[in-house]
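In this supplementary section we document a worked example of the pipeline. Step one takes a protein sequence of length 207 as its only input; no multiple sequence alignment statistics are reported here. Step two produces a three-dimensional model, which step three serialises into C-alpha coordinates for compact storage. The input and output of this example are shown verbatim.
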Amino acid sequence: MQLTQLSFDLLRPQPLLIVISGTSGIGKDAVIQSLKKRNVPIHFVITATSRAPRADERDGIDYFFYSTEEFEKRIAQGEFIEHALVYQDYKGIPRSQIEEALKCGEDVVLKLDVQGATTIRKLYPQAILVFLVPNTVEEWYDRLCDRRSETPASLKVRVATAIREVAQIDIFDYIVLNAHDHLEAAVDDIINILHIEHLRVHHRKIL
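The serialised model returned by step three reads:
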Protein backbone atom coordinates (compact mmCIF):
# COMPACT_ATOMS: atom_id res chain seq x y z
CA MET A 1 0.00 0.00 0.00
CA GLN A 2 2.82 2.40 0.84
CA LEU A 3 4.59 1.64 -2.45
CA THR A 4 1.37 2.21 -4.40
CA GLN A 5 0.86 5.57 -2.72
CA LEU A 6 4.47 6.54 -3.42
CA SER A 7 4.08 5.68 -7.11
CA PHE A 8 0.89 7.71 -7.30
CA ASP A 9 2.57 10.73 -5.72
CA LEU A 10 5.47 10.54 -8.18
CA LEU A 11 3.12 10.49 -11.16
CA ARG A 12 0.87 13.28 -9.92
CA PRO A 13 1.84 16.35 -11.97
CA GLN A 14 2.79 19.42 -9.98
CA PRO A 15 1.63 22.75 -11.42
CA LEU A 16 4.28 24.60 -13.36
CA LEU A 17 4.83 28.31 -13.90
CA ILE A 18 6.33 28.99 -17.33
CA VAL A 19 7.41 32.38 -18.62
CA ILE A 20 7.56 33.09 -22.36
CA SER A 21 9.99 35.95 -22.86
CA GLY A 22 12.35 37.53 -25.34
CA THR A 23 13.09 40.85 -26.96
CA SER A 24 10.41 43.13 -28.36
CA GLY A 25 9.17 41.88 -31.73
CA ILE A 26 10.28 38.28 -31.25
CA GLY A 27 6.73 36.93 -31.51
CA LYS A 28 5.66 36.30 -27.93
CA ASP A 29 2.03 37.11 -28.71
CA ALA A 30 1.99 34.78 -31.71
CA VAL A 31 3.41 31.92 -29.62
CA ILE A 32 0.78 32.43 -26.91
CA GLN A 33 -2.05 32.55 -29.46
CA SER A 34 -0.83 29.33 -31.09
CA LEU A 35 -0.60 27.61 -27.70
CA LYS A 36 -4.22 28.58 -27.06
CA LYS A 37 -5.31 27.09 -30.38
CA ARG A 38 -3.71 23.77 -29.41
CA ASN A 39 -6.13 23.52 -26.45
CA VAL A 40 -3.25 22.69 -24.13
CA PRO A 41 -4.55 22.50 -20.52
CA ILE A 42 -2.84 25.69 -19.37
CA HIS A 43 -4.02 28.81 -17.58
CA PHE A 44 -2.98 31.83 -19.64
CA VAL A 45 -2.47 34.88 -17.48
CA ILE A 46 -3.79 38.08 -19.04
CA THR A 47 -1.37 40.98 -18.70
CA ALA A 48 -2.60 44.44 -17.73
CA THR A 49 -1.30 47.50 -19.56
CA SER A 50 -1.81 51.25 -19.63
CA ARG A 51 -1.18 51.54 -23.37
CA ALA A 52 -4.00 51.93 -25.86
CA PRO A 53 -5.24 48.73 -27.54
CA ARG A 54 -4.13 47.96 -31.09
CA ALA A 55 -6.78 47.45 -33.76
CA ASP A 56 -7.01 43.67 -33.30
CA GLU A 57 -6.80 43.59 -29.49
CA ARG A 58 -9.72 43.04 -27.12
CA ASP A 59 -9.98 44.10 -23.50
CA GLY A 60 -10.05 41.16 -21.09
CA ILE A 61 -8.87 38.74 -23.76
CA ASP A 62 -5.58 40.04 -25.12
CA TYR A 63 -4.86 42.46 -22.26
CA PHE A 64 -6.63 44.31 -19.49
CA PHE A 65 -6.46 47.92 -20.69
CA TYR A 66 -6.37 50.53 -17.92
CA SER A 67 -5.71 54.24 -17.97
CA THR A 68 -2.45 55.32 -16.37
CA GLU A 69 -4.38 56.65 -13.37
CA GLU A 70 -6.32 53.40 -12.92
CA PHE A 71 -3.15 51.35 -13.28
CA GLU A 72 -1.32 53.37 -10.63
CA LYS A 73 -4.30 52.97 -8.31
CA ARG A 74 -4.13 49.19 -8.70
CA ILE A 75 -0.38 49.26 -8.06
CA ALA A 76 -1.02 51.08 -4.77
CA GLN A 77 -3.58 48.41 -3.84
CA GLY A 78 -1.01 45.66 -4.39
CA GLU A 79 -2.95 43.94 -7.18
CA PHE A 80 0.11 43.15 -9.30
CA ILE A 81 2.69 40.51 -8.52
CA GLU A 82 4.99 42.26 -10.99
CA HIS A 83 4.75 45.55 -12.82
CA ALA A 84 7.07 47.82 -14.75
CA LEU A 85 7.13 50.93 -16.88
CA VAL A 86 7.99 49.66 -20.36
CA TYR A 87 8.46 52.11 -23.23
CA GLN A 88 6.50 54.75 -21.26
CA ASP A 89 3.56 52.42 -20.59
CA TYR A 90 2.81 50.28 -17.54
CA LYS A 91 2.58 46.50 -17.77
CA GLY A 92 1.65 44.25 -14.88
CA ILE A 93 0.68 40.71 -13.91
CA PRO A 94 -2.45 40.38 -11.72
CA ARG A 95 -1.48 38.53 -8.57
CA SER A 96 -4.78 36.67 -8.17
CA GLN A 97 -4.56 34.97 -11.57
CA ILE A 98 -1.32 33.19 -10.77
CA GLU A 99 -2.10 32.21 -7.20
CA GLU A 100 -5.61 30.87 -7.87
CA ALA A 101 -4.57 28.82 -10.91
CA LEU A 102 -1.59 27.23 -9.17
CA LYS A 103 -3.69 26.33 -6.13
CA CYS A 104 -6.11 24.56 -8.50
CA GLY A 105 -3.21 22.52 -9.88
CA GLU A 106 -3.13 24.26 -13.27
CA ASP A 107 0.02 25.01 -15.23
CA VAL A 108 0.36 28.76 -15.65
CA VAL A 109 1.88 30.59 -18.62
CA LEU A 110 3.03 34.20 -18.49
CA LYS A 111 4.17 36.40 -21.35
CA LEU A 112 6.76 38.88 -20.08
CA ASP A 113 9.64 41.02 -21.23
CA VAL A 114 13.07 40.22 -19.81
CA GLN A 115 12.68 42.70 -16.96
CA GLY A 116 9.48 40.96 -15.89
CA ALA A 117 11.05 37.52 -16.25
CA THR A 118 13.86 38.62 -13.94
CA THR A 119 11.32 39.64 -11.31
CA ILE A 120 9.46 36.32 -11.58
CA ARG A 121 12.75 34.44 -11.15
CA LYS A 122 13.22 36.22 -7.81
CA LEU A 123 9.62 35.64 -6.68
CA TYR A 124 9.36 32.06 -7.96
CA PRO A 125 12.87 30.54 -8.18
CA GLN A 126 11.43 27.28 -9.58
CA ALA A 127 9.59 28.96 -12.46
CA ILE A 128 10.55 27.85 -15.99
CA LEU A 129 11.91 30.72 -18.05
CA VAL A 130 11.92 30.39 -21.85
CA PHE A 131 13.74 32.88 -24.07
CA LEU A 132 12.55 33.14 -27.69
CA VAL A 133 15.20 33.88 -30.31
CA PRO A 134 14.99 34.65 -34.05
CA ASN A 135 16.79 32.81 -36.79
CA THR A 136 18.91 35.91 -37.47
CA VAL A 137 19.21 39.44 -36.14
CA GLU A 138 18.09 40.74 -39.54
CA GLU A 139 14.91 38.66 -39.33
CA TRP A 140 14.13 40.11 -35.90
CA TYR A 141 14.69 43.68 -37.08
CA ASP A 142 12.46 43.12 -40.10
CA ARG A 143 9.68 41.95 -37.77
CA LEU A 144 9.90 45.19 -35.80
CA CYS A 145 9.75 47.25 -38.99
CA ASP A 146 6.86 45.20 -40.40
CA ARG A 147 4.68 46.12 -37.43
CA ARG A 148 4.63 49.70 -38.79
CA SER A 149 4.05 51.00 -35.29
CA GLU A 150 7.59 52.17 -34.63
CA THR A 151 9.20 55.51 -35.29
CA PRO A 152 12.94 55.75 -36.01
CA ALA A 153 13.43 56.94 -32.43
CA SER A 154 11.44 54.07 -30.90
CA LEU A 155 13.25 51.54 -33.09
CA LYS A 156 16.55 52.84 -31.76
CA VAL A 157 15.31 52.44 -28.18
CA ARG A 158 14.09 48.88 -28.81
CA VAL A 159 17.39 47.84 -30.39
CA ALA A 160 19.34 49.23 -27.44
CA THR A 161 16.97 47.48 -25.02
CA ALA A 162 17.30 44.19 -26.91
CA ILE A 163 21.09 44.30 -26.57
CA ARG A 164 20.76 44.65 -22.80
CA GLU A 165 18.13 41.90 -22.61
CA VAL A 166 20.15 39.35 -24.56
CA ALA A 167 23.01 39.94 -22.10
CA GLN A 168 20.73 38.50 -19.36
CA ILE A 169 20.26 35.15 -21.10
CA ASP A 170 21.84 33.28 -18.16
CA ILE A 171 18.73 33.67 -15.99
CA PHE A 172 16.71 31.54 -18.45
CA ASP A 173 16.27 27.76 -18.48
CA TYR A 174 15.54 27.17 -22.16
CA ILE A 175 16.10 28.86 -25.52
CA VAL A 176 13.44 28.29 -28.20
CA LEU A 177 13.94 29.25 -31.83
CA ASN A 178 10.96 31.20 -33.19
CA ALA A 179 12.03 31.45 -36.82
CA HIS A 180 10.04 33.18 -39.55
CA ASP A 181 7.26 30.91 -40.87
CA HIS A 182 8.14 28.22 -38.30
CA LEU A 183 5.88 29.30 -35.43
CA GLU A 184 4.42 25.84 -34.89
CA ALA A 185 7.88 24.35 -34.39
CA ALA A 186 8.49 26.84 -31.57
CA VAL A 187 5.16 25.93 -29.98
CA ASP A 188 6.01 22.22 -30.28
CA ASP A 189 9.24 22.89 -28.38
CA ILE A 190 7.41 24.69 -25.57
CA ILE A 191 4.88 21.88 -25.22
CA ASN A 192 7.75 19.39 -25.12
CA ILE A 193 9.41 21.43 -22.37
CA LEU A 194 6.24 21.21 -20.28
CA HIS A 195 6.00 17.48 -20.89
CA ILE A 196 9.62 16.87 -19.90
CA GLU A 197 9.31 19.01 -16.77
CA HIS A 198 6.29 17.00 -15.65
CA LEU A 199 8.37 13.81 -15.96
CA ARG A 200 11.09 15.00 -13.61
CA VAL A 201 11.63 12.87 -10.53
CA HIS A 202 12.16 15.98 -8.45
CA HIS A 203 9.27 18.23 -9.37
CA ARG A 204 9.61 21.98 -9.30
CA LYS A 205 7.79 23.36 -6.27
CA ILE A 206 6.22 26.65 -7.29
CA LEU A 207 4.09 27.31 -4.20
